[in-house]
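> call design_seq(struct)
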């Protein structure tokens, strides 16, 4: 973004729209390194925005082999027994959170997500509950249990199994007999979900069961009818957990159908307790693939780490053997998640066709989702230049705040786009990042250093780091990537501005891109090991006329291909902002046009529909919703989404005071 000047008057009469010309970099192209495939289950699942979790037993946390695998492979945990009723409230009104806390606190310290299991279940239920015969007593006991437990774990548990295993096996499709159904009637599930929603409105509320994986089974149909009814009547439910305790044959043939049919009701689906007798590699791969093929299948949990940890240990159903070695099913699971079983370097994927992305795009836009939230010390006119990652069940958005007083940064997080507008804005000028000119943030996680980086412009290219993205006060004071502006930029910048710094790494090198509002995209380079130091060899990576290659460049790795995608913001012949796109087979390679012209743009008002009303004609500085969150900046090849800045088409005046808002584009011509 260009913070210092006004461009509203400029028009494209000076523009060269010869956008189909390839932009060739100086310097030789290098072989495309493979930076995408991860070598652990959690990291690989994260690349598609999913989690890969395991059941954890508090009693095993002293076993170093166990915790070693746990922390290396898994980014989500479910307490195997520690949050069940007979542990937490063994006698009425007396709550024991110790063992649950042990797992919860350990997970939080390591950035692992936590599933809550389970609030209302007929098993592992103390006798004092199952012997209640009075409906009013049982209702208040149930509601109190849900409320106390959810309150205690508020903010720590991202999804709760509110009700577990309430449906009967066999052909009835009805609820099973239990103290809850028998005393409260079948409405107890609805009651439990309503209580749960008011106890913790931000946790996802799941119904969890086994033998609901085969679409045609009466039990599956019974649960499906209940979820459909809940959605139709507005009873709060957010997900269905399919336990997936399979026999050696693995998932039933219609498993993916079941996942997508539930998802089509408007709930997430999760595989919550996966184990498969004898752990055939193909059975695990089929299970994982079904989840990967369903967008709303948000994560997979296996029910234990080593075979010896399993509740079905006689069947050896897990991914690690008794000594903690990876079994064949581990390798097939990792591959099905999109990862490489071997080390990254040896995992050279065959280059897929260059058509991983289409050559033209169509989008549908949301309305303005995020507006500035001025307070007594922040008189802000616009919110701009968003960077976003999806991590730990939340979108984390960093953006510039703009006012006539200048620029700074803001952070907000939310679990769903519908909540973006109500999220709290944390002004980062109150942190060590400090007041003064800071703008155009870019956020990513550096996996080697286990640190989040926020890259931004200050006149130089600057960055701060933070071990915990959700803690706005954790950012370090700004440091600069360069001692001063590189010579090649000084020589080419003319009367432009040095803006929009962008870092992306492959497995060997990190690259720092920047723009000059004067037709040049620059690129510097350092090694992954030296990062964030050592950026040298600054070159012009691409160039065009001033307004045709203006600013706000993004560079991404396209998942499952050897393609990189470059987006650059241009100013159109109508004076409005839009994006052009190019691809390359390596980060230091040449960029070839993809949708790079004003008539075939990557994203412009002409290829965007606005079902909620045309609130902007500018599609300006923003960020793709990535498949992961690390330094490889991997994006999906399908169903792209782009968070951008737009503004009231009639607004004018001081550039710094324009009413920029953030909206979300969703691709409508995805073929996969
Ligand atoms: C099992 C645990 O793994 C065992 O340790 C315990 O003895 C019994 O419960 N469905 C569920 C889980 O929802 O809570 C169960 O866990 C397995 C079946």
């Amino acid at each position: 973004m260009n913070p210092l000047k006004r461009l509203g008057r400029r028009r494209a009469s000076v523009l060269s729209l010869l956008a189909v010309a390839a932009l060739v970099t100086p310097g030789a192209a290098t072989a495309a390194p493979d930076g995408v495939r991860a070598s652990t289950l959690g990291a690989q699942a994260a690349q598609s925005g999913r989690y890969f979790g395991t059941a954890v037993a508090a009693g095993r946390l002293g076993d170093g082999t166990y915790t070693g695998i746990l922390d290396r492979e898994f980014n989500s945990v479910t307490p195997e027994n520690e949050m069940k009723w007979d542990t937490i409230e063994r006698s009425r009104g007396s709550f024991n959170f110790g063992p649950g806390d042990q797992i919860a606190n350990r997970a939080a310290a390591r950035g692992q997500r936590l599933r809550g299991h389970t609030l209302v279940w007929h098993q592992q239920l103390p006798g004092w509950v199952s012997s209640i015969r009075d409906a009013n007593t049982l209702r208040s006991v149930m509601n109190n249990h849900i409320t106390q437990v959810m309150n205690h774990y508020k903010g720590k548990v991202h999804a709760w199994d509110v009700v577990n295993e309430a449906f009967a096996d066999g052909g009835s499709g009805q609820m099973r007999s239990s103290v809850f159904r028998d005393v409260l009637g079948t409405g107890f599930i609805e009651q439990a979900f309503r209580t749960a929603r008011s106890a913790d409105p931000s946790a996802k509320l799941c119904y969890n069961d086994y033998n609901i994986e085969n679409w045609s089974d009466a039990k599956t149909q019974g649960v499906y009818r209940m979820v459909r009814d809940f959605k139709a009547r507005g009873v709060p439910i957010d997900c269905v957990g399919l336990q997936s305790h399979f026999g050696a044959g693995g998932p039933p043939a219609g498993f993916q159908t079941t996942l997508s049919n539930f998802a089509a009701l408007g709930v997430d689906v999760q595989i919550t307790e996966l184990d498969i007798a004898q752990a055939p590699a193909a059975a695990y791969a089929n299970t994982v693939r079904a989840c990967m093929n369903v967008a709303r299948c948000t994560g997979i949990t296996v029910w234990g780490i080593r075979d010896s940890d399993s509740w079905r240990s006689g069947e050896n159903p897990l991914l690690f053997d008794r000594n903690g070695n990876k079994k064949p099913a581990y390798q097939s699971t990792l591959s099905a998640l999109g990862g490489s079983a071997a080390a990254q370097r040896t995992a050279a994927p065959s280059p897929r066709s260059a058509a991983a992305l289409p050559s033209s795009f169509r989008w549908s836009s949301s309305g303005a989702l995020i507006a500035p939230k001025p307070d007594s010390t922040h008189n802000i006119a616009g919110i701009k230049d968003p960077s976003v990652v999806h991590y730990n069940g939340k979108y984390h958005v960093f953006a510039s705040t703009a006012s006539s007083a200048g620029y700074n940064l803001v952070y907000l997080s939310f679990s769903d786009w519908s909540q973006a507008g109500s999220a709290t804005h944390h002004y980062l000028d109150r942190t060590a990042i400090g007041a003064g000119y800071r703008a155009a943030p870019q956020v990513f996680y550096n996996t080697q250093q286990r640190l989040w980086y926020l890259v931004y412009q200050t006149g130089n290219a600057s960055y701060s780091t933070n071990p915990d993205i959700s803690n706005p006060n954790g950012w370090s004071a700004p440091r600069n990537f360069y001692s001063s502006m590189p010579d090649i930029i000084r020589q080419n910048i003319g009367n432009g501005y040095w803006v929009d710094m962008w870092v992306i790494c492959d497995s060997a090198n990190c690259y720092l891109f920047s723009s000059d509002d004067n037709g040049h995209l620059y690129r510097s380079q350092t090694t992954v090991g030296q990062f964030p130091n050592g950026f040298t060899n600054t070159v012009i990576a691409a160039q065009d006329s001033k307004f045709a290659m203006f600013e706000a460049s993004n560079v991404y790795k396209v998942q499952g291909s050897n393609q990189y995608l470059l987006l650059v913001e241009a100013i159109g012949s109508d004076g409005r902002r839009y994006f052009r796109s190019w691809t390359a087979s390596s980060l230091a390679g040449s960029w070839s046009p993809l949708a790079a012209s004003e008539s075939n743009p990557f994203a412009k008002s002409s290829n965007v529909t606005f079902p909620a009303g045309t609130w902007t004609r500018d599609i300006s500085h923003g960020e793709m919703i990535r498949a992961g969150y690390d330094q490889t900046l991997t994006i999906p090849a399908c169903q792209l989404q782009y968070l951008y800045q737009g503004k009231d088409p009639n607004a004018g005046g001081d550039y710094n005071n324009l009413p920029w808002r953030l909206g979300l584009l969703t691709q409508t011509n995805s073929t996969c």
